[in-house]
Structures are given as structure tokens and as C-alpha cells.
Amino acid sequence: MGYVDWVQWPAMVVTVIAAWLIGSQRPARRMAGFFCFILSNILWVIWGAYAEAYALIVLQICLCTMNLRGFKKNFSNQ
């Protein structure tokens, strides 16, 4: 297993942490969740490029766009 192949594990962990944080009622934790989701999107794109998983890359770009939208909406409500 190559070094880049191991990127999927931190990506998975960061995604789970992000989902946990996004469900918080505290605005600061929700914001941290959006940052974690964006980091996980980047990690998944890196791994997807390595694995030639192009549908995953497109999915992560779409999800990142939605995460940025959620971040903006959440930030404007504070």
C-alpha cells in the first residue's frame, strides 16, 4: 500500500469528526465542523486523484461547495 493510499484513513476520521461537530448547537463548534468538512474534502480529492476515482473527486467538489455555502450562512447568522 502506497503512502497516498493511507490518506483515506485520516480523510474518514476527519469526516466523522466534522459530522459530529456540525450537529452541535454551539456556533463555534459548527464552524469547526465546516472547516473539518472542507479539510476532509481536500483529503478525499487527493486520495481520489491517486486512486483515479473521478466520481469521488466530483462529489467532493460538490460537497465542498455546499460546505462553503453552509459556512457562509452560519457565519452570517453570528
Task: Characterize the structure shown.
By secondary structure, the protein is mainly α. The chain is built from three helices and no strands. Helix 1 (8-22) runs antiparallel to helix 2. It is elongated, with a radius of gyration of 13 Å.
Which H/E pattern describes the elements? Answer: HHH
Structural class: mainly alpha
% residues in beta strands = under 5%
Overall 3D geometry?
elongated
What low-confidence regions span 5 or more consecutive residues with pLDDT below 50? Answer: none
Rg computed from alpha carbons, rounded to a whole number of angstroms: 13 Å
How far do the termini sit from each other?
A: 45 Å
Figure out the total of helices: 3
Total strands: the figure is: 0
Mean pLDDT: 92
Q: Into which percent range does the helicity of residues fall?
A: over 70%
Largest beta-sheet characterization? none
